[in-house]
Amino acid sequence: MKSKCCFAMSKAGKGLKTVATIAASVFMLAVQPMNAVASVQYMPDVTAEMNTPEFWLMLRGGEADTILADQGTIQRINAANLANEKTNMNDLRNYSEITDVMSFNARLLEESGKDLKSYQEKGYFDRYGNILSDELIQAIVLNTQNQTGVQSMAPMYGIAVKRSLLCAFPTDAIITDEQGDLNFDYNALSGVRVNEPLVIRTVSADGQWYYALSANCSGWVKVSDVAICSSKSEWLNAWDIPAERCLVVTRPRLMLAESNTNPELSNLVLTMGTVLEQAPAGSIGNRITNRSSVGNYVVYIPVRGADGRYIKETALVSAIAGVHEGYLPLTTRNIITVAFNMLGETYGWGGMLSSNDCSGYMTDVYRCFGLVLPRNTTWQAASDAFNFDVTDLPDEQKASILNNMPIGSILFLKGHEMMYLGMVNGKYYVVSASSSIGSFDGTGTMRTRSVIINTLDIQRANRATWMNSIYKMQIPYWMF
């Protein structure tokens, strides 16, 4: 049993501890700002000012608003890329091939089985963290087979009704090289924007997927994300829009207003590079989705009807939502402004996560100007646009060429590409959708998974610098 004296000493001791705790807390508050937060981080040698278009425009000087390529030049480059077999573009407008279902089934069976087995041999995982099983592979491969019983299939003409994906296989299964990493799926091939045209060649065994061609890719897309047009002319009218009636999305994404009146349009996401048709004046009533159109553009949005058919609905897009009437003029100011709209956005392999990988980023930026780039880095590097092959040049000569390259040039590494910005204090800067870089401690990799600005002296996983790894430099909007 404690005496009164001991009890008093105990209370005094607790009091001293309390005073000491308060004193320590006061000291910590004195040495730390009251509003201390995790501040925005940048790559080495990158400042907050460098993340603004104005910094690079002032650095370069000159006429930031000079037209670098008019629509005639852009269309000439588009046509050249379409004719270039190395770019793997698809001539949708003139596509008329009849699909022999039996032979196409055989091709899909062989190719998908081979690709999936390759992923299994590399030790890749499913969404549950298990190495791809024979049973999963078999189920996916069998779903590539058209089971409708038809011998031949004329092309169907589809329009994407929501931001979707072209996938390597007709499945929701995830294929990842890191256990539990569900944000990197090798099944994803390319993003598909709302109102983007697709040519359908076949349908999966379960009826849930179409095998489709986009302008620069081919793969499986969910049937529920596509509306089928009743004729080729209806299909062409949906997306082949006169320049004076185009409305182009120039920000990473915007969302249509929530609506109980028109649920198929409610909260619909439109991503950068989406091109919509503005409704002609006098062709609409007093209300759109039960609203006045004041302060908004009135546009046509594709909708999938109950029977899967294409329906053209009117919707409102805020005049300040990040859109432009017609394709943007291709100027230095517009290139860097659109590109910087994506800074800090997540990296999305193959267009997953409603975002972009490195080549998808460049594709979406230049789509705002009407320039249709090939899908991946290898195909883009093969473009007929103005190119410098610098594979065997030392860094000093690469730097000398860069000194004369404009903002917006694309620099290619094996498996990566980035947009050139300029040189500051002897360092060369680029912006890209980056998945990873070499760790700063010299070992392993650092997962970036963002659109970032960095210098060309950072390293890749193999410890070579980005400058040393550049093999091609391209001005995508020039062609001689």
Characterization of this structure:
This protein is α+β, with helices and mostly antiparallel strands. The protein has three domains: 49-69 and 330-475, endopeptidase domain like (from Nostoc punctiforme) (endopeptidase fold (from Nostoc punctiforme), Alpha-Beta Complex), CATH 3.90.1720.10; 89-240, SH3 Domains (SH3 type barrels); 242-327, Roll (SH3 type barrels). It contains eleven helices and 22 strands. It has helices at residues 4-31, 53-60, 71-83, 101-121, 134-143, 232-239, 332-340, 358-367, 377-381, 395-402, 466-469; strands at 99-100, 152-153, 156-160, 164-167, 188-192, 197-203, 209-213, 218-222, 226-228, 246-249, 253-255, 269-271, 275-278, 296-304, 310-318, 323-325, 386-389, 410-413, 416-424, 427-438, 445-455, 472-475. The strands form six sheets. It has a six-stranded antiparallel beta sheet with strand order 17-22-18-19-20-21. Strands 8-7-6-3-9 form a five-stranded antiparallel beta sheet. A five-stranded antiparallel beta sheet has the order 15-14-13-10-16, with no helix packed on it. A hairpin with a 2-residue loop joins strand 18 (410-413) and strand 19 (416-424). Helix 4 packs antiparallel against helix 5. The longest helix is centred in the first third of the chain and has 28 residues, at 4-31. The chain starts with a helix and ends in a 5-residue tail after the last strand. Residues 1-32 have low confidence and may be disordered.
